[in-house]
Structure prediction request, 463 residues.
Amino acid sequence: VGMLTRDIELSDAILDLLDNCLDGVIRQKREVDRNSTKNYYEGFFSHISITKDSFIIEDNCGGIPKEVAEKYAFRMGRSAAEDEENLPTVGIYGIGMKRAIFKIGKSAVVTTRNAGKIYQVTIPLNWAQNEQDWDFPITDIDDMNQLRAGGTRIEISNINSSIADTWGSDDKLDKFKNDLIRSIQQSYSLILQKGFTIEVNGESVSPLPISLLVDDDTSSAAIQPFLYQQTFKDVHVSLAVGLYAPPPSPEDIDDENNLRRSSSDAGWTVVCNDRVILYNDKSHLTGWGEAGVPQYHTQFIGIRGIVIFESTNPKNLPMTTTKRGIDTSSEVYAVVKDRMRQGLKMFTDYTNRWKGRNDLERDYSRAAKSVSIHALISEVNSAEKNESGKFRKSKGGYISKPNLPSPPNDKAYRTISFSKGIEEIKDVIEYLYNDREHPITPSKVGEKCFDIVYAQSHSKEGE
Prediction:
């Protein structure tokens, strides 16, 4: 038990319990197409209640069939017999619920209602100390008023000391609640948008929608995303990357506070069976700083991408056991990552070409409208049926490469960047404007100085 819980964070353990809720929805709606149903999770909920002495999670997602409880749910690990489920869930290893319970506390009561029957399983305190008896009894319950909609309630008690300290005061508990809500927003954004409801201590969790800029006028160069779709055996992949906001001006880059907010929205989001496993990543894991793609820099704050992996065999999805990271050994991910870099480079190049001419670029980015990822991915998934010629076939997949605008007299640009002391900058401002407090930004000061020296260098030509 100690080894099981050592490599998972507390918030990730709670997300494992939420994953079980969502897998219950998928089992109930196995005949419904999840991808084409916009409000697939509507009507289902999970409510979390946390105090310093207890943790409770309750849902209406169908409950645990008794046979599943006896053979799988409370078993350590997953037997081969369950691999025939053939559903697009995210539970893989058979340790999620148990690992989460033991991460939080030493004992628990699991009450569930499935197919009109209610039963309870108790994990007693110090159960692991008995080397001979690891059986947990199932107790049938006659009270039909419990979990009337059909679902599961997990009540964890005897909270582990390190966790109890994390929740030990109102301030600490409030901070943990806010951090957990942020994690849920990031990991379940698509699911929340599809109608699922999550509450933490009575506070409803709202989604963080992802959208990209799209100009419908394709008669000439216009802002459009790079789109890609391909199926690898039983893994279907959909990808979209583009601009969600115009490239930043030098003044934007000088405004560090604004950039912190903007940078948090940039990067790649990776999704496996509706579950976000990487959110707005800007590292080499998603292609930044590799194969001709520059490392992430604040000048790229307007670029965002999403790649969605779907499979009825979740073991083939490129995610780690905690479902919070990429399995870099995945062959499918290695192929898809090449496409991620291909699309990403189009928009880093676009940003670099328009550098310093942001006023002109705004004519194009302002003509584009924000379009939800759900709509874009629907377009990607219909690529094979698309007759417009927007998509072309490539190595077994379908790609749509945008015809992005180019600046007039397009030529190579490079950034000149350096740091100087505030007082030194003010000395130069006073020299230029006779006003030490002039509101010009540091980048504009540098640009002004360059323009002066550039003009002087040309005035000496022919001397």
